[in-house]
Amino acid sequence: MMKKVAGPQHCPLVYNELHHKTICGNNQQKQALIQELIKKMRQESKRPRGLPWPPKPASTKGNDHRSPALRWSLLILIMELRKHGLEFQVLALARKYKVYVPDLLFFGRSITDRSERSPEFQAECVAKGLRKLGVERCTLVGFSYGGMVGFKMAEMYPDLVESMVFTGCVMALTKSISDAALKRIGLKSWSEFLLPDSVQGVKLLLTRATYKLP
């Protein structure tokens, strides 16, 4: 039932004739389809042999206006999707970049026995991990909480961060910003907002977290 149709060489388009049955119905078939898609993407996106680790910057010549840093290491920091949420994008990016998509602490299987719970601690752990992998400079791509960690990482380790691309986040969640936001929604803590224990709490979360056009 799987067919391959024309598409970019690094990202082949694959579809299933029984779309509603596999995507909207049987979850087991859906998972099998996803695994087959991932397998095909991996086959199409094999990294060229002989690349150094980490990749060395290429010289900028002629009309090549891309920053050499973008051909080094690309670090993607996200929260809601975690690393498996960007499976196809990572495979495409990996043809030109050395891509790192770590699970931040307490996301996925990343844990610690230390008591710190802050973007600073997350940034410290990510930076140490990159150092151990031999990464000297990288471009950060951040979303949501991952963006906040990325900003803190750039502040703490400017020698490690070459450039940044972020969306859906603030540069820093200070106490004054947090207190003002909680006051607007009428709650005392973010745990009360994000982990409601009542129907009214769930309704409040949905009304504040979504927007409906008139």
TrEMBL record:
Residues 43-65 are annotated as: Disordered. It comes from the Eukaryota. Coiled coil: none annotated. Residues 92-180 form the AB hydrolase-1 domain. Pfam families: Abhydrolase_1. Signal peptide: none annotated. SUPFAM superfamilies: alpha/beta-Hydrolases. InterPro entries: AB_hydrolase_1, AB_hydrolase_fold, Meta-cleavage_hydrolase. PANTHER family: AB HYDROLASE-1 DOMAIN-CONTAINING PROTEIN, SI:DKEY-122A22.2. This is AB hydrolase-1 domain-containing protein. It comes from Fagus sylvatica.
